[in-house]
Automatic annotation (TrEMBL):
Name listed for the protein in its UniProt record: Metalloprotease PmbA
Keyword Cell membrane appears in the UniProt entry: no
Keywords per UniProt: Hydrolase, Metalloprotease, Protease
Highest taxon above the source species: Bacteria
Organism expressing this protein natively: Noviluteimonas lactosilytica
Entry similarity comment: Belongs to the peptidase U62 family.
Gene: pmbA
PANTHER family linked: METALLOPROTEASE PMBA
Domain Metalloprotease TldD/E central: residue ranges: 115-221
């Protein structure tokens, strides 16, 4: 971290000497280990070590950027020269420039996000093999495997700019996953499970992951289609966060100033039921996106995105904010940890309350129109009657419009999937079109 900080400071000095009116530098270094096994045999072992230096300069309202992975003096000097040359040949952009100096973070904290895993390739392979074997042994209907994997990474990064800001961060992330195939021939079904965490101690046990993968794959055997109609749809937690992702895309600055969003001019508009809320918490211990500052050095802050169903603000960095005549929301680089308020019980209670409807456990395709909000995606899951699973479902499409879907949300469960920075439980949408058999 100290070495990267020194490089960042040196590069800023070079930018000033070259005549740049403003400059910013990002430096990062990452190392990791990834192993994959399949059918009890080793497939790949990969050790990675990456680094990168990015320099951006501003000559008034003209911007230029260049990058390198070479830390030699001549390479660093050439990177600054290239960034300056690009800036001198670009047109003025009135929105270009660093974030305002008075918005820079004054305090840089850590949020318990640094937990390196002392695991070598042999140990990682043993874990992956045990995970896959537990899954293959769990059910006689597991005929094949797409393999199991173990990954671990640790990264450090430094951001500095000519306002005098310099912030350093470090993080780790570890993952164990398994994908299995049940049945044979045309009746094969594939599914899996994985666990990911900041600290290895927070990972699910490898054998448990394998067994869960087997259970999910076997449960999908002998699927049926459904007649076309309108029914309630329950999105299981791991797919429910995709609905929140569509909201984030629609209220992000880039989509808004390009007029490519169905939520243009929607601040202070009721988008969800009046009990619904989403809060951003950048300071969550062991959060996947916890940070004291965003990618422009702006101090992060806890704030509501949705309150009482009403959109409170957009998601903006300084560039998109200027394009819209607004102020950055400290979201350059994306949102931090989001919490979606639950108004219902756990998954079992949500399922038990469904008289008749569809449980979605997998989504396929990219059929979402960001301009109109029209939504149409392939789906798989289970048909529910009287609060119980009746049979697996495949080969169907679920459709609607995101505006209507948001307003039709009836429940959010407490069964939060902890594997993402979007912390949300299962979501029940009161009515959607399900297209299956004619």
């Amino acid at each position: 971290m100290a070495a990267l900080s020194d490089i960042a400071s040196e590069l800023l000095d070079r930018c000033r000497t070259a005549g740049a009116t403003q400059a910013e530098v990002s430096c990062s270094q990452e190392h990791g280990l990834n192993v994959n096994v399949r059918m009890g045999a080793v497939e790949t072992v990969e050790s990675t070590r990456d680094r990168g230096i990015a320099v951006t300069v501003y000559f008034g309202k003209r911007k230029g950027s260049a990058s390198t992975a070479d830390l030699r003096e001549e390479s660093l000097a050439a990177t600054v020269e290239q960034a300056c040359a690009i800036a001198r040949h670009t047109e003025d952009d009135e929105a270009a420039g660093l974030a305002d100096a008075d918005l820079m973070a004054r305090e840089v904290r850590e949020f318990d996000g640094w937990h390196p895993w002392d695991v070598d390739a042999d140990r990682a392979l043993d874990i992956a093999l045990a995970c896959e074997q537990a899954g293959r042994d769990a059910d006689a209907r597991i005929e094949n495997s797409d393999g199991a994997s173990v990954g671990s990474s640790a990264s450090i990064s430094v951001y500095a700019n000519s306002h005098g800001f310099l912030g350093a961060e470090r993080s780790t992330q570890h993952t164990i996953g398994c994908a299995l195939i049940a049945g044979r021939g045309d009746g094969m079904q594939r599914d899996g499970w994985y666990s990911t965490a900041i600290a290895a101690d927070d990972l699910e046990q490898a054998a448990s992951i394998g067994r869960h993968a087997a259970e999910r794959a076997a449960a999908r055997l002998q699927p049926r289609s459904l007649p076309t109609g309108e029914v309630p749809v329950l999105f299981q937690a791991e797919v429910a966060r995709s609905l929140i992702g569509h909201l984030l895309g629609a209220v992000s600055g880039g989509s808004l100033y390009r007029r490519a969003s169905f939520l243009i001019d929607s601040v202070n508009t009721q988008l969800f039921p009046d009990w619904f809320s989403i809060e951003e918490d950048p300071f969550l211990p062991r959060g996947f996106r916890s940070a004291s500052f965003d990618s422009e050095g702006v101090a992060t802050r806890a704030s509501k995105l949705i309150e009482d169903g009403v959109l409170q603000r957009y998601i903006l960095g300084s560039y998109s904010a200027r394009k819209l005549g607004l102020t950055t929301t400290a979201n350059a680089g994306g949102v931090h940890n989001l919490r979606v308020r639950a108004n219902a019980g756990d998954f079992a209670s949500l399922l038990g309350g469904m008289q008749r409807g569809l449980l979605v456990t997998e989504l396929m395709g990219q059929g979402v129109n960001s301009v109109t909000g029209d939504y149409s995606r392939g789906a798989a899951g289970f048909w529910i009657e009287d609060g119980r699973v009746q049979f697996p479902v495949d080969g169907i499409t679920i459709a609607g419009n995101l505006r209507s879907m948001f307003r039709a949300i009836e429940a959010v469960g407490t069964d939060v999937d902890p594997r993402s920075h979007i912390r949300v439980g299962s979501i029940l949408v009161g009515k959607m079109t399900v297209a299956g058999e004619s």
